[in-house]
Amino acid sequence: MSEQGNVNTSIENGIGTVTFFHPQSNSLPGNLLQQLADEILEMGKNPDAKVIVLRSEGEKSFCAGASFDELISIKDFTTGEKFFSGFAHVINAIRTVPKFVIARVQGKAVGGGVGLAAAADYTIASANASIKLSELAVGIGPFVVGPPIERKIGKAAFTNLAINATEWRDANWAKNVGLYADVYDGIPNVDDAVNSLAKKLSESNPEAMLEIKKIAWAGTDHWDKLLLERAGISGRLVLSEFTINAINKFKGK
Question: N or C: which end of the chain has fewer CB within 10 A?
């Protein structure tokens, strides 16, 4: 396992798997975000993959969101906008690939990790997969990940998460609001459910699945522009003295 993290892919029996890893609770620096977006798009083009599974390594964390080390290193707007655009590219990759994306959420999801779970077409989670949108606690906000989360769980539940930024919500809460489709006790049961659904989808009609995906994502064509605009908001706020102090304080805990 690389100390810088990695993204790996495989295809077996029609199931394409994209796996990411970072030693800091599967947080995502800019280079991994770009790799993740690229690999999802490539899997979408590969005729051997009928369905895509998005997963991470380890057991405790699905994804801790943005890399704090990279956040604190941002010194200008262009760099900040580019970093937050990374999440926009991954979300738009999931949105636009002509195949269903199943998210396997085996552990906690924070910030951008919640955005990935929301962007997936079908999300299967562990009972330990609590969620939190912590952005406001460090002086920014869930701007880029907001649209997919709001689309999946509604404005009220999204706003609750965004405002109460230090409060964990458990997997059952996430299931009740529609973020998780299914919740299982234990990672082996999660894997069984993911594999079972992926197998069924790999044997389903690709044209029918594509038409369902088009209907499910109707009204989001403007996201290519919208999510980049949202990245600009985060890129501006991350430069503020308030945010710099908040991130340093958070890292020091």
Answer: C
Give the CATH number of the domain where residue 166 resides.
3.90.226.10
Report which residue type is found at 188.
P
Q: How are beta strands 122-126 and 108-110 bridged, if at all?
A: unpaired
Helices (H) and strands (E) in the chain, counts: 11, 9
Which two three-digit tokens encode residue 26? 């599967």
Cβ atoms of 81 and 130 closer than 8 Å: no
What is the residue-wise DSSP string for 162-209? HHSTT--B-HHHHHHTTS-SEEESSHHHHHHHHHHHHHHHHTS-HHHH
CA dist 112 and 68 (Å) reads: 12
Q: Are strands 182-184 and 108-110 parallel, antiparallel or unpaired?
A: unpaired
Q: Check: CB of residue 30 under 8 Å from CB of residue 64.
A: no
Q: pLDDT value at position 1?
A: 42
**pTM > 0.90: yes or no:** yes
